Every structure is written in structure tokens, then in C-alpha cells.
Amino acid sequence: MQAIDARNLTKSFGDLVAVDGISFSIASGEIFGLLGPNGAGKTTTISMLSTMQKPTSGTATVNGHDVVTREDDVRKSIGIVFQDQSLDEELTAYENMDFHGRLYRIGGEERRRRIGELLALVGLADRKDDLVKTYSGGMRRRLEIARGLLHEPKVLFLDEPTLGLDPQTRNHLWEYIARLNNEKGITIILTTHYMEEADRLCDRIAIVDRGTIVALDTAENLKHSIGGDVVTITSPDPDKIADLLTAPWVSGIERHDGSVTVRLQEADRHIPGIVTAIHQSGIGINSLSVRKPTLEDVFLHYTGKTIRDEEADGKETIRMFQRARRR
Ligand SMILES: Nc1ncnc2c1ncn2[C@@H]1O[C@H](COP(=O)(O)OP(=O)(O)OP(=O)(O)O)[C@@H](O)[C@H]1O
């Protein structure tokens, strides 16, 4: 069964089309990533799927329930961890979980059992009686994920689950997310700016830009789709180099400020010829590197832009500032 099926899902805010007729399906048990820069429409997409916002047009079902006409059924079958933290800092982890369990009317014995199991799953069992205000960022995020699973949802939405966490904590959290997908078979749909996160965690990735899905496949296939190796040449005159490389084995060329990126099959075979041709034309080369394509290259290929991790970190700084002002 499909866990999620979206057809021409669209959301406009006045003149701005935040999500522009996107369609995709997610199979039960998949980890599915929406990867894109700030403002691409990722959060709006999962807000519609999780019934927090109504689509302007189009349809979607989650666990077989329509997100507009069967809102309550959708809500009962999903867990949500959105970007803004919603834990009570003055309560312990256990108390936060317990409060949430009562809201969902989960009976006493069962509630205690689930809380124990989930806190163990996210590695917080031994800190369950500590106040949340003593927790690190990574621990809070793990607690939020555990809380989102308390009512045993089939689908879990994670909006930027590792935003602003340091690389080590991020790695740790990926392990927990992968584990709960493995052990509990939960379908996970997450949004991210982080290429590595999408690459490491997701079975399939939808690359989102300006409200549309520009590419959707496994990380492997996406990288393969742009063809061969990536050769980056930095030079005082990258435009001239790009004009020079017209051979049929060049599958793509992108010009950037100060460099040119060339995609080609079997780079090892062609590089000597490329270097000779550039030298014979009297063009200087500052550096030349060869590597396999990354998701960054895929994104650049489909959108003409780069996503940088700093974008995400910059956003987290703004959020922290906003949170501090609210207190
Ligand atoms: N409630 C709203 N009212 C008006 N515009 C909105 C609203 N919510 C989102 N937008 C706009 O819709 C576009 C998509 O926003 P969205 O938050 O979905 O993007 P995103 O890919 O999740 O980016 P981010 O990671 O920054 O949240 C942006 O231009 C944003 O400013």
C-alpha cells in the first residue's frame, strides 16, 4: 500500500505559489526526503500532508485517508516533528512524554510501556527524569521524535530534523532515524537542506525548487542520471574553456564564476586531451579536479543553483534569535 499519494498538490499564498502542482507517491516503510533550498516549498508540502494547511488545489492521501475530507483519520495515523521546538523545558523527558500520551488518551499501563520503549529507542532512558532544560540540542530533538511516535503512527513527518545540530550529533540522530524505520517499519518523510543527510538516510529523494519537484529517484540513480564523472577546472577564463569543450563525450558543461564544471564519461581517458587543448589555446588553468557526482552536482544540474549548508545554519541562527526574543 502507498503510505502517501499526492496529486497536483498546490498551495498559494496570495500571488506566491509556494507549492506548484507536485505529484508523488511514497511506499509504506520508505524513508523519503524532500531536498531543497530555503523557500523551495518543503515545509508547506508536509504541512499540507499533515493537515496543518489546506491545499489550494490538488489532492493527497496519507495512509489511504484524504487530507481534506478525512483530516482526523490522517492526524491519528501520523506523527509530526516540526522545526520549532515544542517541549516543556520545566518538565522532565518522562513528564513531557506522559503529558502527550494523556492528550492522546493512551491508558496508564500502556502509556508507561510505550514511553519506556521509545525513550530507550532514542537513547534517553537513563536521562528520563532530568529536566528538558538540561538537555543538549540533539537530546531535545530525539525526545521530540520519541514523543511524535507515542501514539504509534504509521507515518512520521520530520521537518529539518537535524537543523543546527553539530555534525557528530547529526550523525547520531541519523542512526536513530534509520533504526526506528528498520525496527518499527515506520514510513518517514523528511525535509532537509543537507545533501549528506538525504544521501545517507533516504531511500528516495525529491529535489524541490521553487515549489516544484525537479527530480525524484534514489540518490544513486540521481547521481547516475547526470552522467559520468565531474571535472572542475578553475581558470582566469572559464568561458573560453567551456567554448572549447564541444566533443560528443562531454555530457554537460556548467559555467560558474572562476570555474567550469564538465561532466563526462571515463574522465581518466579524456583529461590529458582536455589539458592539451586548453594549453594550446593559450588559456591558463589554476586547478583541475575529478570526482564522482554528488547530490550537490545533481541539484546544480537540475536547478542551476547550489544549496549550501550555511543556508541552513544561517536560518537556525535567525530561529534562535527569534526564540530568545519570545522568552
Ligand atoms: N503562511 C505563509 N504566508 C505567506 N507565505 C508563506 C507562508 N508559508 C510559507 N510561505 C512562503 O512560501 C514559500 C515556501 O516556503 P516553505 O517554508 O514551504 O519553504 P521551505 O522549502 O520549507 O523552506 P524553509 O526551509 O526555509 O522552511 C516561501 O517563499 C515562503 O516565504
TrEMBL record:
<feature type="domain" description="ABC transporter">
    <location>
        <begin position="4"/>
        <end position="235"/>
    </location>
</feature>
<dbReference type="InterPro" id="IPR025302">
    <property type="entry name" value="DrrA1/2-like_C"/>
</dbReference>
<dbReference type="InterPro" id="IPR003593">
    <property type="entry name" value="AAA+_ATPase"/>
</dbReference>
<keyword id="KW-0547">Nucleotide-binding</keyword>
<dbReference type="InterPro" id="IPR005894">
    <property type="entry name" value="DrrA"/>
</dbReference>
<comment type="similarity">
    <text>Belongs to the ABC transporter superfamily. Drug exporter-1 (DrugE1) (TC 3.A.1.105) family.</text>
</comment>
<dbReference type="Pfam" id="PF00005">
    <property type="entry name" value="ABC_tran"/>
</dbReference>
<dbReference type="GO" id="GO:0005524">
    <property type="term" value="F:ATP binding"/>
</dbReference>
<keyword id="KW-0813">Transport</keyword>
<keyword id="KW-0067">ATP-binding</keyword>
<dbReference type="InterPro" id="IPR017871">
    <property type="entry name" value="ABC_transporter-like_CS"/>
</dbReference>
<dbReference type="InterPro" id="IPR027417">
    <property type="entry name" value="P-loop_NTPase"/>
</dbReference>
<protein>
    <submittedName>
        <fullName>ATP-binding cassette domain-containing protein</fullName>
    </submittedName>
</protein>
<dbReference type="InterPro" id="IPR003439">
    <property type="entry name" value="ABC_transporter-like_ATP-bd"/>
</dbReference>
<dbReference type="Pfam" id="PF13732">
    <property type="entry name" value="DrrA1-3_C"/>
</dbReference>
